Amino acid sequence: MTDPRTTVVITTHNRRPELLRTLDRLAELPERPEVIVTDNGSTDGTSTAVARHHPRVRLLRPGRNLGAVGRNLAVRRVRTPYVAFCDDDSWWAPGALSGAAGLLDRHPALGAVTARILVEPDGTEDPIVEELRNSPLVGPRWLPGPALGSFLAAATVLRTDAFRRAGGFHPRLWLGGEEELLAADLAADGWWLTYAEHLTVHHQPSAARDSTRRRRDGIRNTLWFTWLRRPTRPALRRTLHLARTVPRDTASLRAFAEATAALPWVLRERRVLPPEVEARLRLLEDSQRRSTARRYTG
Questions:
Q1: Of residues 215, 7, 165, 150, the one with CA closest to residue 92
Q2: What are phi and psi of 219, to 5 degrees?
């Protein structure tokens, strides 16, 4: 069973063993998807290894670490109606790409499908899955699963054209919760996002990660999204909530300092979301205040 509807896009930086394992898994999928890898300036021989072991993979080498914008670079080369994102330490289960494409085929107003995430090597559910499964948002009756306010890039298939029209991932956010802004812009364009319980992504977290920087960037990006898209009062309320609840450490202090220093460009680019999208965000915000799976504080 091959399926030409979806291209898989991966960004990587100095994780050669993990990436090769992921490419091995993707090569075994019955869908046989085209795969595009953006090597974000790796210095560990990643590009050479990919060219040697997976010559059918399209390899992009921008020469520097673009973060999430490396995905934008790859999507410019995508020729299929759907694009599946994948991290270099995660991979799609057999049949999941076809299942997501089928949902997108059947529902023209559906913009993105997020799968269930199993953490390897034990195969346990990622804690965020419970939030996805029990999303408080109410979508239209045709929606095939719970409505979502955002998505996890490594576990999501999107419409290629919708991604492009929304502008892709914002170049200033780099990495760390960068999906929130794009998800809001997709919703503002009229697209719905959903969670699909029957589709699976496997994630075996790499040990090669800077968790402190990721948390710092996640807090900063949450602030930037809030100031870029939320009305004044909700933006102030969320900013104060973050200030009270994030860990009181150097990483959080630097996140707030970086966010504040960027106010000139943030105010220039500020574009408040439509009222119906803002209403969904408020509902999600109330729910997430009770959540223990906050990616920007964990």
A1: 7
A2: -65, -45
Distances (CA, A) of 248 to 112, 223, 257: 35, 16, 13
**Which pLDDT tens digit goes with each residue over 146-155?**
999 999 999 9
Residue 53 pairs with which residues in a beta bridge? Answer: none
The tokens of 159 are what? 């419409």
Neighbours of 169 (CB within 10 A): 24
| pTM (2 d.p.) | 0.94
Instruction: Name the one residue in this structure whose structure tokens are 């009770």.
Output: 290
Alpha-carbon torsion angle 87, 93, 97, 100, nearest 10: -100
Q: What is the pLDDT of residues 170-220, one digit of tens each?
A: 999 988 899 999 999 999 999 999 999 999 999 999 888 788 888 999 999
Q: CA-CA distance, 149 to 91, in Å (whole number)?
A: 23
Q: Which of 287, 257, 205 is nearest to 21 (CA)?
A: 205
